Amino acid sequence: MLWIFYGSALLFLVLSGYKAYVFTKMPLHGRMELYPVPKEKGKSEYGGSYFEEVEWWHKPRELSGFSELKDMLKEMLFIKKLFQNQRSLWWVSYALHLGIYLLAAWTALLIVGAISGLAGMPISASGRLLPGAWPAFLYYLTALCGNLGFACATFGAAALLWRRAFDPVLRKYTTPQEYFNLLLLLAALVSGLIVWFPDLFYQEARTVMADFLSLTPPQATGTLTLHVILVGFMFIYIPLSKMSHYVGKYFTFHKVLWENDPNLPGSEIEKKVQAALGYKPGHTWSAPHVQTVRPQNQDR
Per residue in 240-298, pLDDT tens? Predict the structure, then answer.
């Protein structure tokens, strides 16, 4: 299982990084300049813009990266737009996302706890084995994140699968891949519940993590092996699927919705515009109601 653990983690990072690289190399988007733009310092509060200033091209442009990041995190951490526009779906969708965030924190806490144990500082409920409150704090915080994470994520994945299967509106535009995505998440979560449910304080999980970190093959049961395989496959699959929106969120906001840099002579935007004007699509449109254009090298 060691190669699954390290291989899937490495591929997850490499494939996610590659997808981010591909996003950086994409041509200029169709600029919409949707206001308010949070990075417009002092103007985003009322939906204004730098361009409203008289002779704006002669004036310094004040930007706020903090305001942009703050607004972006509202979407990334709380799915703000879904909350505003489709509240009934937000509850189950956010349960899934919150569960994933908590399980990510749980994994990090398991790593910290495993390292502490390997360093001769075992994590315990009372903290008596190590002076101070740190062992007990880590012990209970790991349990809190793990239990809430599994509960929220499993409920969210199952509820979203139910909604997509039985809601007449959602069912119309739910693709087979989206069903597969939710079933894969649900399988990984349910297998995790089966493996870790007997120990809700995750002492065994810390032991397994310590084995992984020390390159020691853990004593694996059939259910643990299945769980590791499912999680490993999921880690490799996610960057290749539409679930990789954790990479695309930044570019969607920073480079699409909120990019309103002025197109001035000699600017980077002008160069991108010129490059975009010379772009020729390499694929024809596949929709049956659209007339496609034959490539020029074919007989008409």
Answer: 998 998 898 888 888 888 888 888 888 888 888 888 888 777 667 776 665 555 555 44
Q: Which long-range contacts (CB under 8 A, 24 or more apart) does 239-244 make?
A: 239/11, 239/12, 239/15, 239/16, 239/18, 239/19, 240/15, 241/177, 241/181, 242/177, 242/178, 242/181, 243/181, 244/16, 244/19
- Predicted TM-score (pTM) of this structure: 0.85
Length of the chain: 300
Computed from CA positions of residues 11, 210, 205, 146, in that sequence, does the dihedral angle turn out positive or negative? Answer: negative
Within 8 A by CB and 6+ apart from 248, the residues are: 19, 23
Higher pLDDT, 33 or 157: 157
Name residues whose C-beta falls within 8 Å of residue 38's C-beta, 6 or more positions apart in sequence: 44, 64, 67, 68, 70, 71, 72, 258
For 236, the token pair is: 């490799």
CB contact set of 76 (below 8 Å; sequence gap of 6+): 246, 249
Instruction: Provide the b/e sequence for 247-269 (b: ≥16 CB within 10 Å).
Output: beeebbbeebbbbbbeeeeeeeb
Contacts 24+ apart (CB under 8 A), 91-95: 92/155, 92/156, 92/159, 92/160, 92/163, 93/156, 93/160, 94/156, 95/152, 95/153, 95/155, 95/156, 95/159
Contact 86, 143 (CB under 8 A): no
Where does 103-232 show beta strands of DSSP type E? none
Is 300's pLDDT higher than 50? no
Long-range CB pairs of 167-174 (<8 Å, 24+ gap) are 170/89
Residue type present at position 294: R
Tokens, residue 278:
């010379």
